[in-house]
Design brief:
Number of helices: 22
Bound molecules: adenosine-5'-diphosphate, magnesium ion, zinc ion
Catalytic activity: Couples ATP hydrolysis with the unwinding of duplex DNA by translocating in the 3'-5' direction
Number of domains: 3
Organism: Porphyromonas cangingivalis
InterPro entries: DEAD/DEAH_box_helicase_dom, DNA_helicase_ATP-dep_RecQ, Helicase_ATP-bd, Helicase_C-like, P-loop_NTPase, RecQ_Zn-bd, RQC_domain, WH-like_DNA-bd_sf
GO biological process, one term: DNA repair
CATH class of the largest domain: Alpha Beta
Shape: globular
CATH architecture of the largest domain: 3-Layer(aba) Sandwich
Protein name: ATP-dependent DNA helicase RecQ
Length: 510
């Protein structure tokens, strides 16, 4: 189908050019193939289902988690004269019947539905009776318990594909690491979906972590930070609701205009905060992660994390709200050991999954990093980066004390390869250090040539260096398969002596 998509783009939306990957996603949608698109916030994901919706026969259903988000989208579509509507629990019965009859008469091109509405008997009935061209699942990471914003309403959406395998589905999200991506595909029951992943690098964001600040130190630092940013407005993310309120109070006392924001506030209060933020009347919003989805403010100049977040996915999403206009923006994370205990407690209280813990572990690694933080972030999302970014605190204050790590890396990788990449960190270390553990002997790993070649290093050193190999993109951890380690193409280069690799020695403090 060689439709002139650019003409359609300018006709319906008034844009001259597609943004990266939009055209590919739209063309795929037009062929009816399922897909999962992971594109950063602001990349223009809505257009990826809105434009095909206009070109396909029938109505596209859009599942979206927030009613406020749906409303914004409908207003924008109506301005462009595109027949669209929402279906959710806030409609009057009269309006609801109106929407349903429009849908059944084929007058709608886009219908935004709340997940619970789509899964209700009414929604199921409409799926049967109306001509549905496609189902788009926006903010698709909400389906995964391992993502950073699980919503139970999303968890049953797999039924749609089960009952209507012929209706193409597109899932979209701004942040999903590999485990979350796989989980989305499985839970939605997508059939051989095309996976489209955008470029995640946000070079304009300065990345900074400060360690060991106590509460009083943080307050002083935040005040200074806001002053340094010409009192432009930004977001301070806190892990706890109570903290958003107490922090806002403390900042007010220091003469900073700050407001708290969290999910248990009334809709009205939250709207007040949103408005104050959009119009630039406040300097700081002290918020839980509930604040952010759907914020369309392009000129946020800074984001602070008052504590260590639970995982890199959430963290990257949150700092990504700064500098969406492309101009420089700053991010600052306060990290302390007590954060780890707090997060660990939250994890175990939530009936933890091992994966959740692993994700936190990676976040901790990011905080403690002695190498370019952007390398670590992008490595996490599957984009090994070779050069330093020169826009993070580590790059700007490098610690010179690295040493040639090629031989150490080669030892670890050859152990991994000789066991067909079926071992996790612990077994790798056991092999290298020549452990006599029963499981190891049982698998005959003591016959490997790499058995015992790493006795010169301690268990702790090996663990640290293997983590650095992961951070640098030489190894990948397969979360879905017992955390086994896989050697990446970059790793193979180092193994063959074709690429350099430097390690940071394990310092005494650890
Ligand atoms: P996302 O959902 O990926 O965060 P949105 O779909 O909300 O992003 O789009 C962000 C902004 O980009 C919107 O204001 C939208 O109108 C604009 N936009 C999308 N595609 C284009 C394009 N091809 N050209 C210009 N602006 C675009
Ligand atoms: Mg969006
Ligand atoms: Zn850097």
């Amino acid at each position: 189908m060689m439709i002139d998509l650019k003409t359609a783009l300018s006709h319906y939306f008034g844009h001259d050019e597609f943004r990266p990957l939009q055209e590919e996603i739209i063309r795929t949608a037009l062929t009816g193939r399922d897909q999962l698109a992971v594109l950063p916030t602001g990349a223009g994901k809505s257009l990826c289902y809105q434009l095909p919706a206009l070109l396909l026969n029938g109505c596209t259903l859009v599942v979206s988690p927030l009613i406020a988000l749906m409303k914004d989208q409908i207003i924008a579509l109506e301005e462009r004269g595109i027949p669209s509507a929402t279906l959710n629990s806030t409609l009057t019965p009269k309006r609801r019947d109106e929407v349903i009859s429009h849908l059944l008469m084929g007058h709608l091109k886009l219908l935004y539905v709340a997940p619970e509405t789509l899964l209700s008997p009414l929604g199921q009935d409409l799926l049967q009776r109306a001509t549905i061209s496609m189902v788009a699942i926006d903010e698709a990471h909400c389906i995964s318990q391992w993502g950073h914003d699980f919503r139970p309403e999303y968890s049953q959406l797999g039924i749609i594909k089960e009952l209507h395998p012929h209706i193409p589905m597109i899932a979209l999200t701004a942040t999903a690491d590999e485990a979350t991506r796989q989980d989305i595909v499985t839970k939605l029951k997508l059939s051989s979906p095309k996976l489209i992943i955008g470029d995640f690098d946000r070079p304009n964001l300065y990345l900074e972590v400060r360690r060991g600040y106590k509460k009083a130190d943080k307050l002083i630092a935040i005040k200074q930070y806001i002053n340094d940013h010409d009192n432009s407005c930004g977001i301070i993310y806190c892990n706890k609701r109570s903290e958003t309120e107490s922090l806002a109070k403390e900042l007010n006392k220091m003469g900073i205009k700050a407001l708290p924001y969290h999910a248990t506030m009334s809709v009205k209060d939250r709207e007040v905060v949103h408005r104050a933020f959009s119009s630039g009347q406040v300097e700081a919003i002290c918020a839980t992660i509930a604040f952010g989805m759907g914020i369309d403010k392009a000129d946020i100049r800074w984001v602070i994390h008052y504590n260590m977040p639970k995982n890199v996915e959430g963290y990257y999403q949150e700092i990504g709200r700064a500098g969406r206009d492309g101009a420089p923006a700053d991010t600052l994370l306060f990290y302390s050991y007590t954060d780890i205990f707090v997060v660990e407690k939250l994890i175990s209280e939530s009936g933890q999954h091992d994966l959740v813990r692993q994700k936190m572990e990676y976040m901790k690694r990011y905080c403690e990093a002695d190498i370019c933080r952007r390398k670590i972030l992008l490595g996490y999302f599957g984009y090994p980066r070779h050069e330093n970014c020169n826009n993070c605190d580590v790059c700007l204050n490098p610690s010179p004390k690295t040493f040639d790590g090629v031989i150490i890396a080669q030892k670890a990788m050859s152990a991994i390869i000789r066991t067909h990449e079926q071992i996790n960190i612990n077994m790798t270390i056991d092999i290298l250090r020549g452990s006599k553990k029963y499981e190891l002997l049982d698998l005959k790993y003591h016959h490997l040539p790499t058995y015992g070649v790493g006795q010169d290093l301690s268990n702790l050193q090996w663990r640290e260096y293997i983590y650095q190999m992961i951070q640098n993109g030489l190894l990948k951890m397969d979360y879905m398969n017992g955390y086994t380690l896989k050697v990446t193409p970059l790793g193979h280069e180092v193994l063959r002596g074709k690429a350099p690799f430097r390690l940071i020695p394990l310092s005494i403090k650890k």
